[in-house]
Amino acid sequence: MDSIFTFRNRFFESLPADPDTRVIPRQVYNACYSKVEPTPVKSPKLVAVSKEMAELFGINESEYRTQKFTETFAGNRLLEGMKPFAMCYGGHQFGNWAGQLGDGRAINLGEVVDVNGDNQTLQLKGAGLTPYSRTADGLAVLRSSVREFLCSEAMHHLRVPTTRALSLVLTGEQVMRDMFYDGHPEFEPGAVVCRVSPSFIRFGNFQIFTARKDFDNLKRLMEFCVRYDFPHLVTEEKEEINTEIFEQWFDEICKRTADMVVHWMRVGFVHGVMNTDNMSILGLTIDYGPYGWLEGYEPGWTPNTTDEEGKRYCFANQPQIASWNLHQLANAIAPIIQRTESLENSLGKFADYYNQKAHDMYANKLGLDEHRGDNDQQLISDLFDILQVSETDMAIFFRLLSNLNESESYSNEQLFKMIEPAYYSPKEINQDKQSIITGWLRQYLARLVHQSVAYGERKIRMDKTNPKYILRNYLAQIAIDKATEGDFSEVEKLLDVMRKPYDEQPEYDSYFAKRPEWARTKPGCSMLSCSS
Ligand code: AMP
Ligand code: MG
Q1: Which of 24, 277, 306 has most ligand 1 atoms within 8 Å of its beta carbon, as the pocket-test mutant?
Q2: How much distance in Å is there from the Cα of 107 to the middle of ligand 1?
Q3: Mean pLDDT, rounded, for 243-269
Q4: What is the per-residue burial (b if ≥16 Cβ within 10 Å, else e) of 478-516?
Q5: Angle, CA 48 vertex, CA 47 and CA 49 arms, to 5°
Q6: Separation CA 446–CA 458 (nearest Å)
Q7: Which ligand is nearest to the CA of 147?
Q8: How many angstroms separate the Cα of 262 from the Cα of each of 26, 173, 465, 479?
Q9: Pocket of ligand 1 from Cβ distances under 6 Å
Q10: 477 CA distance to ligand 2 centroid (A)?
Q11: pTM (2 d.p.)
Q12: Residue 522 burial (10 A CB sphere; 0-12, 13-18, 19+)
C-alpha cells in the first residue's frame, strides 16, 4: 500500500501550522491546522470497505483484506508520506456564532492523487483527541460510523454531491455515550471511518479568521482554496488571485451549494445539522450526523432531536438555511474582497438559481418535458398538498408515479390503487380524500398528454430521478444492531442495494418498503441525537 499512495499534502505544506504540538483543548491562533497523530487503538477489526473507493486508489481486495490496511485506517500506523493534522475552523451553530470548533475527532492523513488524477484527502473520523476536541473524547461509536459510512456511499450512487467513505473499522475499545442526553450513559463499540474528499475545507475555516481579524491567514486560505480546489478559475499557476477571481469563486460556491440542496430535496434527505462548520466549500454533503430520510412526506420534519423545538434544519428549510450560511461565508470573505456588490449579487441570485434548478428537478421527477411556468408550478404545489392528505411515503409515491400511462383510461379506483402502496394508512383515506388524490392524478395525466414524450421514454427518465431504494433510517438501524452483535452482513447488503438505487433489483424488493410501524418511535429510526 505504501507504493500505492503517493502523498503530496498541499494543505499541510502550503498553509501555516500551529507551532504548539500539545494535544490539549485550546484556542489555536494564526494557523490553519495543528499537527496531531491518530491515537492508536487496541484491536482494530475491519467492518467494511467501499470497493469503489478502494478501486479509486488502485487497491484490490487482497490488499484491503490485510492487517496492514486495517491498522492504517484505524490510525495505528502511518504510511510513508502521511502528515496527519487537524483543521482549525469555527462556525455558526443553530444560528449563533460558536467560536472555534475545528476537527475535534477528525484527523487528516494527507492528500493523494486517485487513479483519475484527482486530488483526494484521506481523513479518519473518530481517531482520537486533537487540540479542537474541547470537552469531548475525540472518538466515534459504531452506530454513527455505520450511518456515515453507508450514507456517504449511498449518496454518491444517488448522484448527490458528497464526501465519500473508504473504510469502517471497529477499534476494539468501548466508548461512553449518553445517546439521548438524558443521564443514561452506556458503553458502545468505538469505530473509525476513513472519509475521503477532494477537500475538507468548510465555510467555518474562513469564518474563524475573520472573527479573529486574522486577515493575512484569511487571504492565504482563500488563495489556497481557489488555486487547489477550484483550479479551473486560475489560468496560470503563478497568476495572482485577484478580486474578480474571488468573486467568481464565491458565485460558484453559491451555485454548488444550491445544486447540492436541490439533490437533497429530490431524494428526500434531511441533513439535520446545517451549521456553517458542516458546509463544504465544494458543495458536498459533509458530516453525516443526525441526518434522516423523509418517509412520510412532511416538510417540517427533522430527524435531529436537538432541533425538535425550532425545527431550524427541517426538510423544507434547507434551501433557506443554505442561503443563510452563504451569507455568513460572504461576511467572512468580504474583508479580502472589499467590494461587496458582487457578493451581494451572487447571494441575491441564489434563490433564482435554486428555483430554476428545483423546477428542472421537479419536472424530471414528474417526467415533464420541461417546466412550463405557472401552470406546471401550480401542478407541483398541488402535489405537495396532496402528499399531505394522508401520510404518504415520498420515495414510493414518486417511484409508483412512473407507472401511470397517459394513453390508458383509468377509473378513479384503478388510479388510486396504483399509488396506494405509498400510503401508511390507506384505510383512513375516505372517499373525499381519495377524490382529492385522484383529482391531482388526473390533472397530472392531462398535463402529460400535452407533451410529445412517449410513455416508455418518460418512465426511464423518471426512474433515473426517483430512486427506488433510499437508506431508510430503520434499514441503517437494522444493520447497526447486527453489526453491534458482530454480524456485518447487513452493512454489506445495504452497501450493495444502494449501489444501484435507481435499478429495479427484484432480489432486493423487500428494501422497497415503507417504514414498519415498530420503527416509528424507535431511537435511531425516527429520531436521532447529535450524540455520536
Ligand atoms: P458536529 O456537530 O458533529 O458537526 O460537531 C461539531 C464540533 O464538535 C466539531 O468541531 C467536532 O469536531 C466536535 N466534536 C463532535 N464530536 C466530538 C467528539 N466525540 N470528540 C471531539 N470533538 C467532537
Ligand atoms: Mg461537523
Answers
A1: 277
A2: 12
A3: 98
A4: bbbebbeeeebebbebbbebbbebbeebeebeebbebbe
A5: 145
A6: 15
A7: 1
A8: 38, 39, 12, 28
A9: 101-105, 132-133, 136-139, 273, 277-278, 287, 289, 530
A10: 21
A11: 0.98
A12: middle
Strands (E), 142-223: 164-177, 186-197
Which residues are CB-neighbours of 162 under 8 A, at least 6 positions away? Answer: 152, 155, 156, 284, 285, 286
Q: CA 277, CA 98: separation in Å to the nearest integer?
A: 10
Cell 437533497 appears where? Answer: 264
Q: Which ligand sits closest to the CA of 306?
A: 1
Percent of residues, the chain, with pLDDT higher than 90? 95
- Radius of gyration, alpha carbons of the chain: 24
Which residue minimizes the CA distance to atom 20 of ligand 1?
138
pLDDT of residue 2: 56
The DSSP H or E segment spanning 108 is strand 106-113
Candidates 107, 67, 280, 279; CA nearest to 192 is 107
Tally of CB atoms within 10 A around 341 = 10
Contact 317, 230 (CB under 8 A): no
Residue 25 alpha carbon to ligand 2 centre in Å: 17
Which of 18, 277, 307, 463 is the catalytic position? 277
Residue 150 or 3, more confident: 150
User: What is the phi/psi pair of residue 100, to 5°?
Assistant: -70, 130
H or E segment at 379? Answer: helix 374-386
**Through-space distance between the first and last CA atoms of the chain, rounded to whole angstroms:** 30
CA of 318 to the centre of ligand 1 (A): 21
Residue nearest to atom 7 of ligand 1 (CA): 101
Phi, psi of 67 (to 5 degrees): -60, -35
Give the Å distance between the CA of 87 and the centre of ligand 1: 12
From the alpha carbon of 101, which atom of ligand 1 is closest?
A: 10
Q: Which residues 6+ apart lie within 8 Å of 417 measured at CB?
A: none
Q: What tens digit of pLDDT does each residue of 180-239 get?
A: 888 999 999 999 999 999 999 999 999 999 999 999 999 999 999 999 999 999 998 888
Active site residue 432: no
Distance, CA of 312 to CA of 315 (rounded, Å): 9
* Nearest-10 Cα torsion for 476, 479, 480, 483: -160
CA-closest residue to ligand 1 atom 22? 104
| Reported confidence tier of residue 3, pLDDT bands at 50, 70, 90 | low
Least distant ligand from the CA of 140: 1
What is the tens place of the pLDDT at every residue in 22-72? Answer: 999 999 999 999 999 999 999 999 999 999 999 999 999 999 999 999 999
- Rounded to whole angstroms, the Cα distance separating 165 from 9 reads 19
